[in-house]
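Section 5: illustrative case.
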């Protein structure tokens, strides 16, 4: 029996491991299972060189023994001698993976991917254990089994082991504060989270569960692995059918709405990157979107939505990204400053942009069908990423008043300078839409919060293009006003006196639509400021009221009711003026509860005066 001290630089290693090594305590199981997979990968590599004979079955088994308070992880991989345990485990700074890869380096062997570095990852076991045991038998001919035990202090014991088959068994004697990891459902949950796509079959066994009885004449069912060893993203796109992609999407993201389309990433040079990005059907409000991009390292789950690897706007999508060259333990500061990570992010952005442009050019009918769902991604991406905008700007489309999709250059007919009228709420602004259509004018629909930011962005990119909501100006649907007409001045005074609102601006215009008695206008600048403060949340909502004085009531002097206003009795005239004002407000925005009650009462009063 050999005894000694673990070679480290700090005697406070174990407290650090227990509390600070990983942000999530359950990662210890990912590390240990990944180590088992690495051991098998190493053995497979050795068999290729003829140093050992290959097996038909490789697996990692996780066994839960709740009564004995043990969690056991066993593999049939390369195994270790006593000297190797001393080298790889006791000397924590040493990485056996680096040495192994250098010795068996073969760039053409795609199956020789080593996931982690056996050493520091192994010590995560002490996050949940009072003591840990390693029982291992090396593949080498004549090797003896070796057993290593440590109780979490700086001392260990290394002796002869009991294992009779090649591989390694790690036994965790679970601490009292970590007994949750002795619950089979908890262990299964962790394995499903981190190990669902490991390249080696992983089995879960419960020692305290009775095996189901096998009836006479029936065959005992073989256990099933908890993972899929050949996930879809690891295959070539040519090997995958549409149904394969859809089934994978349903199983991984539990979304039973079919995705609109997807992008299969498969890059070997200048970096290694595989993955699938799905464009899902979504709600049309940005605030209601929640994407899910899962980051993997050699089929081991690392994290969700790591924005340093996945461009922020693409986190609105769903998908998986596998980056073998990234560390298993993602450091935010490392990723922010890593040039390799930036190249991956840029590549993903470019592939998404290329897919969108290709759809627009070659499958425009479906692209237009997808637009209601994908426009939020495209617009957000344009605002957030300059390169993405430059690639997709000609594929950004807008629905006009006739329901047809057009690009901005199409809508402006190639003019260098142009006003682009838009609608933010087709139902609420229907009166203005009708007036536009009557004059043969057109506008585009921009109904979401994202569109408010988009139009400011587009104006910044092209200052000669100005966006104006259709209720912000009447220059194209009104004749010139007769500002000096005494009758019009008297009309304004009548409205001011009755409405008794000094902040309200009132004008008289000759609208081309004679059926409308009055409309409300709100300057584009004021409206945008209101929307901006509202989008910031409740704490800023009150600031939007600062811009109420930008409302303008435009009285239509060509309307028959307005022309006959002076012929009415004073009390009826007062009712009509208030009613005309409310009608104008309704076409602009909903009345509040008190205003609506008064409007209904006034409507009933006016109707009663008809008889």
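Designed sequence:
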């Amino acid at each position: 029996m050999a005894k000694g001290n673990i070679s480290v630089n700090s005697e406070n290693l174990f407290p650090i491991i227990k509390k600070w090594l990983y942000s999530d305590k359950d990662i210890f199981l990912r590390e240990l299972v990944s180590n088992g997979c690495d051991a098998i990968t190493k053995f497979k590599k050795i068999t290729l060189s003829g140093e050992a004979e290959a097996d038909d079955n490789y697996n990692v088994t996780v066994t839960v023994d709740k009564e004995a308070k043990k969690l056991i992880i066993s593999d049939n991989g390369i195994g270790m001698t006593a000297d190797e345990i001393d080298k790889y485990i006791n000397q924590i700074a040493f990485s056996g993976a680096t040495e192994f890869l250098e010795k068996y380096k073969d760039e053409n062997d795609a199956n020789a991917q080593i996931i982690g570095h056996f050493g520091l990852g192994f010590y995560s076991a002490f996050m949940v254990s009072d003591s840990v045991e390693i029982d291992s038998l090396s593949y080498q001919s004549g090797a003896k089994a070796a057993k290593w035990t440590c109780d979490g202090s700086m001392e260990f014991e290394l002796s002869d082991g009991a294992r009779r088959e090649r591989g390694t068994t790690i036994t965790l004697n679970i601490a009292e504060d970590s007994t949750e990891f002795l619950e089979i459902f908890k262990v299964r949950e962790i394995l499903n989270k981190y190990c669902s796509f490991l390249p080696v079959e992983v089995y879960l066994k419960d020692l305290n569960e009775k095996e189901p009885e096998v009836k006479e004449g029936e065959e005992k069912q073989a256990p099933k692995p908890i993972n899929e060893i050949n996930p879809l993203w690891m295959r070539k796109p040519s090997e995958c059918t549409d149904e394969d992609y859809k089934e994978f999407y349903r199983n991984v993201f539990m979304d039973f709405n079919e995705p609109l389309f997807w992008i299969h990433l498969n890059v070997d040079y200048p970096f290694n990157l595989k993955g699938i990005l799905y464009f899902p059907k979504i709600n049309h409000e940005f605030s209601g979107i929640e994407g899910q991009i899962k980051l993997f390292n050699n089929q081991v789950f690392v994290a969700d939505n790591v924005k340093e690897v996945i461009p922020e706007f693409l986190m609105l999508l769903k998908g998986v990204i596998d980056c073998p060259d990234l560390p298993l333990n993602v450091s935010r500061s490392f990723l922010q400053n890593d040039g390799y990570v930036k190249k991956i992010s840029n590549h993903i952005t470019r592939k998404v942009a290329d897919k969108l442009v290709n759809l627009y050019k070659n499958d425009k009918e479906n692209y237009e069908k997808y637009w209601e769902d994908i426009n939020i991604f495209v617009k957000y991406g344009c605002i957030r990423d300059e390169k993405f905008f430059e690639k997709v700007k000609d594929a950004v489309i807008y629905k006009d008043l006739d329901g047809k999709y057009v690009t901005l250059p199409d809508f402006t007919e190639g003019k260098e300078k142009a006003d682009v009228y838009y609608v933010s709420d087709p139902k609420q602004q229907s009166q203005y839409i009708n007036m536009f259509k009557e004059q043969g004018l057109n506008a585009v629909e921009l109904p979401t919060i994202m569109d408010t930011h988009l139009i400011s962005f587009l104006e910044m990119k092209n200052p000669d293009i100005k966006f104006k909501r259709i209720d912000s100006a009447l220059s194209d649907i009104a004749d010139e006003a007769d500002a000096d007409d005494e009758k019009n001045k008297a009309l304004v005074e009548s409205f001011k006196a009755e409405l008794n609102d000094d902040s309200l601006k009132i004008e008289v215009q000759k609208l081309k639509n004679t059926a409308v008695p009055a409309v409300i206008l709100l300057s584009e600048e004021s409206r945008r400021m209101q929307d901006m403060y509202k989008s910031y949340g409740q704490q800023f909502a009150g600031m939007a009221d600062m811009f109420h004085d930008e409302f303008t009531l435009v009285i239509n002097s060509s309307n028959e009711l307005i022309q006959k206003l002076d012929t009415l009795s004073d009390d009826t005239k007062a009712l009509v003026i208030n009613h005309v004002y409310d009608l104008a407000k309704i076409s602009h925005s909903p009345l509040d509860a008190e205003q609506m009650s008064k409007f209904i009462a006034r409507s009933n009063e006016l109707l009663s005066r008809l008889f």
